[in-house]
Specification:
The protein has about 525 residues and is an alpha/beta fold. Strands 1, 10, 11, 12, 13, 14, 15 and 16 form an eight-stranded mixed β-sheet that branches. Strands 2, 3, 4, 5, 6, 7, 8 and 9 form an eight-stranded mixed β-sheet that branches.
Length: about 525
């Protein structure tokens, strides 16, 4: 089955293209503004203190650990963006997926210069999600540790999440998925279990301090006088307690030891690696900014988006003339074979049936699937309900839930209602999920939600023979609409970790290639078993 090269109909000089690009650039600028704040690693005073102590910052440690000039994608950089009382976008860790000694790893570095690396609510959710990614894809985790442990004022929300991360570390270790911890400073209280639960622990001499209780608490609890080095210094843990497996002279030595440990892990060859050269798309990713509308009421042909993401802009479309609001195709991204299911508007019965069959075929072929969202959901109305829209939608949801090939999800526009579920939204546990900055997601659109609530209130008043207060009703309707718009925003979604990151569309291939490299680390096995398809 030969790949077909797509011929774009986009005119980059048209008024519509230029207007879309201008509006999307506003959203890109907003994204960059949030990311700039996220990349701020603490106050000037805290950074100056770190510099005086000759410490590297978190992002510098990551760069030194990673293979030079190798790809790295940061995950959940805006976690907690809108959380009141939180420690800022991204929490107190910098994390992502990259190559260490040619081995794909999760790398997670504490931001010790932001609130001493204490774990707030968003950070606890972020660490849990990193554990899920490591477990699902069976890749090692490297923790670059310098943290004061749980943020005590936040303990009621952090407590269970933080504790579950230790269980997750144990389960990964049981399956032979190692965790390596490199301790550069404090790892206290519950945080002491990060190096304690790791398969390999490296501590920096005269800097690492790992203990369950510091000198003041020990004094209060036992009346014992001691100091930090005696309680939990790297030399003590290396010579006496045995908590440290390696004693490093300085930060650079600790990082080099971590790289060497990765090299000594059980040898692993990815299940699939692309042959070279890899053919880039014929059309520029830059053009996505003029194709994708910021105003999601404007239609877009998702094929034009696909053509700027996939190798050579080539794909083979399945059932091209049937169920046209769902595009299903075979292609490659970064050299990795991929099936794409892309919503191209509202989902009709035939669109759902087509996607269901394609999922079955992907499972027969052990092929990972990329779901691309731009849909307001399933078609509604009397004739569609009577023709069994629910049956067709249920078939698709069964197929997505039952599919065992890896799923990756990319939100490029609307993602509402059961359409989000059917296209493998967050609640259906894709291996990775990324969003564009124009995305809106929720149960239904803000206008529809406000309109539905107005109808319900009018019906309720009519049923009790009460007169509607039009001014009050309008005030309530406007408040509902405003709240729904805020909660449908991509900034709300990413703050709550509904995605693994909001990305600039021009970085789509970079993110999807790393995601596919991750899911292709081990053999992919589809399934023949699905829930009951209601016919």
């Amino acid at each position: 089955m030969a790949m077909q090269s797509f011929r774009s109909k986009i005119n980059p000089k048209s008024d519509r293209f230029l207007r879309n690009k201008e509006e999307m650039q506003v959203l890109i600028d907003e994204l960059q503004s949030h990311l700039t704040v996220a990349k701020t690693e603490g106050s000037k005073a805290s950074i100056d203190r770190a510099r005086k102590r000759k410490k590297f910052l978190a992002r510098e440690r990551i760069q030194l650990l990673l293979d030079k000039e190798s790809p790295f994608i940061e995950l959940m950089p805006l976690a907690g963006l809108l959380h009141e009382g939180g420690f800022g976008p991204g929490g107190t860790t910098v994390a992502g997926v990259g190559y260490v000694n040619k081995r794909l790893c999760i790398v997670n570095a504490n931001l010790s210069t932001r609130k001493a690396g204490a774990v707030d609510y968003a950070t606890s959710l972020k660490i849990r999600r990193l554990g899920e990614i490591a477990l699902e894809n069976k890749i090692p985790t490297i923790n670059l540790v310098e943290s004061g442990g749980a943020n005590l004022p936040d303990q009621d929300r952090v407590f269970n999440n933080y504790g579950s991360t230790f269980r997750d570390m144990s389960l990964r270790s049981k399956q032979g998925i190692p965790t390596i911890s490199v301790v550069f400073g404090n790892a206290t209280a519950g945080g002491a279990y990060v190096p304690g639960m790791s398969d390999y622990t490296i501590m920096q001499k005269d800097a690492a301090k790992v203990f369950l209780a510091g000198p003041p608490l020990v004094k209060m609890a036992t009346n014992e006088d001691t100091n930090a080095q005696e309680l939990g210094g790297a030399t003590m843990h290396s010579n006496i307690s045995g908590v440290a497996d390696f004693l490093a002279d300085d930060e650079m030595d600790a990082i080099n030891i971590a790289r060497h440990v990765v090299k000594t892990l059980k040898s692993h060859k990815p299940h699939f690696e692309p042959s070279t050269p890899i053919v880039p798309p014929r059309y520029k990713q830059e053009e996505l900014l003029g194709i994708l509308p910021a105003n999601l009421k404007k239609p877009v042909d998702v094929r034009e988006v696909i053509a700027r993401i996939v190798d050579g802009s080539e794909f083979t479309e399945f059932k091209e003339n049937y169920g046209k609001t769902m595009i299903c195709c075979w292609t490659k991204i970064g050299g990795y074979p991929t099936g794409i299911i892309a919503s191209n508007g509202v989902i009709f019965a035939e669109s759902a049936q087509k996607a269901t069959q394609f999922i079955q075929l992907a499972n027969k072929s052990n092929l990972p699937l990329l779901f691309m969202h731009n849909t307001t959901g399933f078609m509604v109305g009397k004739s569609y309900e009577q023709k069994g829209m629910i049956n067709s939608g249920s078939q698709l949801i069964h197929a997505v839930a039952g599919s065992t090939v890896p799923h990756i999800t990319l939100l490029i526009g609307n993602s509402y209602g059961a359409g989000n579920y059917a296209m493998c939204g967050r609640s259906f546990s894709p291996r990775f999920l990324f969003s564009y900055p124009n995305v809106k997601a929720g149960v239904m659109g803000a206008e529809q939600l406000a309109g539905v609530m107005e109808i319900i209130k009018r019906q309720s008043a009519a049923s009790t023979n009460q007169k509607v207060d039009e001014k009050q009703l309008k005030k309530e309707k406007d408040a509902i609409k405003k709240d729904a718009q805020a909660k449908a925003s991509v900034w709300h979604a990413t703050s709550e970790l509904w995605d693994d990151g909001v990305i600039d569309p021009r970085q789509t291939r970079e993110h999807l290639t790393i995601a596919l490299a991750t899911v292709y680390q081990y053999p992919i096995e589809g399934t023949d078993a699905f829930g009951v398809f209601r016919m």
